[in-house]
Each structure stands twice: as structure tokens, then as C-alpha cells.
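TASK: fixed-backbone design
INPUT:
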């Protein structure tokens, strides 16, 4: 997992993400995602789904199941407005891309970028600590998106864990308080 060295402050006056980077963001997205001119019609959700497939195609979860299946289930569970973030919620943790890279690659807006920052676990952060960090984030669009995706993520992990895992149960209970 990596964090951008100097990410823009989501929602800060005059800072639109990734719009403030202009043409650089478009060039970066094309180079990093292998885009062609035909990709201009893809939505941020389409670009997020494609990036998730590329990053997670050969990855497995801790139980040996394809990681992309988890990501797709989470994305199918959330409302359309949260789907782009749901597709990329594990990309920064499982690739060389930091949340800023991912935001540029798929064209996330300020709230989506803020949600992705919240959803990216920090080194050494436990599931419960991470869940508390999301819950304690300032109220707003980024927090709400992050909570939506985090609930779907935790629920999917809890349902797919071969044996009951009390940590996922604790995380679910924490998320119910929001």
C-alpha cells in the first residue's frame, strides 16, 4: 500500500480532483491504463472495473480464491454512485499504485478520491483500527462513500470466511453505529 506524497485535499477550495491536474491527468491515465482513443467513452466506473481486473487478475485472497471475485461482489452490492470506488477499493493495497494514481487512472472526483484514501489501509493497521478511522472521518461525501463500500467489503468477507471470524463481526457491529 502506498499513499500519494502530496495528495490534494478533497473538497478544498479551488482543488478539484483530478481536474486541477488538467492534461497531465489525461496523459497519465492513458499511459498507465494502456488507454486508446476508444476508451474516451468509458465512465469512471468502466475504467475502475478495467483497472481492478488488470490489478487483481492473478491475485488470490487469503483462502486461495480469485481476488477479482470479491471486488466484483462488493461493486455489485453498492449503489451505482459508489461503484467506481468499490471496484478499486483494494487496488492501492495490492499494487504499485497509490490512491492518487488510482484517482488519476480512473477519473475519480473529490469525494471518490477521499473515500479511496479512507478505504486504503495503512501499514500495520488492523481491520478494526481501519474501520474506526473510516467511522471517525469528517462527515461528508467521502466518508459516506467510504462507509458504503466498507460495509459491503466487510459483509462480503464475513460471508466468505470458511470459519466464523469474530473480527469481521466486530467490524460489522462498529459499522452499524454510523
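OUTPUT:
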Amino acid at each position: 500500500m502506498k499513499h500519494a506524497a502530496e495528495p490534494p485535499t478533497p473538497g478544498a477550495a479551488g482543488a478539484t480532483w483530478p481536474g486541477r491536474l488538467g492534461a497531465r491527468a489525461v496523459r497519465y491515465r492513458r499511459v498507465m491504463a494502456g488507454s486508446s482513443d476508444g476508451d474516451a467513452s468509458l465512465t469512471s466506473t468502466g475504467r475502475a472495473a478495467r483497472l481492478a481486473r488488470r490489478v487483481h487478475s492473478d491475485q488470490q485472497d487469503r483462502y486461495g480464491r480469485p481476488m477479482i471475485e470479491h471486488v466484483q461482489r462488493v461493486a455489485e452490492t453498492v449503489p451505482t454512485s459508489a461503484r467506481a470506488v468499490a471496484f478499486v477499493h483494494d487496488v492501492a493495497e495490492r499494487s504499485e499504485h497509490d490512491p492518487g494514481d488510482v484517482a488519476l487512472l480512473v477519473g475519480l472526483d473529490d469525494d471518490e478520491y477521499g473515500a479511496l484514501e479512507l478505504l486504503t489501509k495503512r501499514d500495520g493497521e488492523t481491520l478494526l483500527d481501519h474501520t474506526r478511522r473510516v467511522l471517525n472521518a469528517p462527515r461528508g461525501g467521502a466518508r459516506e462513500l467510504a462507509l458504503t463500500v466498507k460495509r459491503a467489503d466487510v459483509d462480503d468477507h464475513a460471508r466468505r470466511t470458511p470459519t466464523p471470524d469474530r473480527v469481521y463481526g466486530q467490524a460489522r457491529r462498529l459499522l452499524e453505529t454510523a
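COMMENT: The longest helix spans residues 141-160.
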